[in-house]
Design a protein that fits this description.
four-stranded antiparallel β-sheet; Immunoglobulin-like; 135 residues; 16% helix; 9 strands
């Protein structure tokens, strides 16, 4: 009677290490662009559980961006609070691994306009309207 063959532990280790390394090495660039027009400044404060990027003032036509690596557990989340003269304290997720890992794998770009928020879909290459501002 033959004994069953086991998958070699080195092979399993190499496969798991490669998967973790792939996730850990993925660098993502997130960016928020102010396209409100008429000289309106945008104030934004973005952070994750581990990183607070501080309050930023983005002039009309300007942009604020940052780079980060996704975590192994697939729970990376950067969220932002923003406001300007007509909208008070709007909260959104600038990067959520569950939503964005394939949609914007290497860059998550957000465009803030007077009618709402757009995001660039990295798979299609098109800007998509994502959110209306509350009344």
């Amino acid at each position: 009677m033959q004994t069953p063959r086991r998958i070699g532990y080195p092979l399993v280790f190499v496969l798991l290490f490669s998967l973790f390394n792939l996730v850990l090495s993925d660098k993502v660039h997130a960016s928020v662009m102010n396209r409100l027009g008429n000289g309106k400044n945008l104030t934004i404060h973005c952070q994750s559980k581990d990183d607070d990027l501080g309050q930023q003032n983005i002039p009309d036509g300007g942009e604020f961006g940052w780079d980060f690596s996704v975590n192994v557990g697939g729970t990376t989340l950067f969220y932002c609070d923003m406001e300007w003269e007509n909208v008070q304290q709007y909260h959104f997720d600038a990067y959520s691994f569950a939503r964005d890992y394939t949609r914007c794998a290497s860059q998550c770009l957000w465009l803030i306009s007077t009618e709402g928020m757009y995001s660039l879909n990295g798979q299609t290459g098109f800007w998509e309207f994502m959110y209306y501002w509350p009344n």
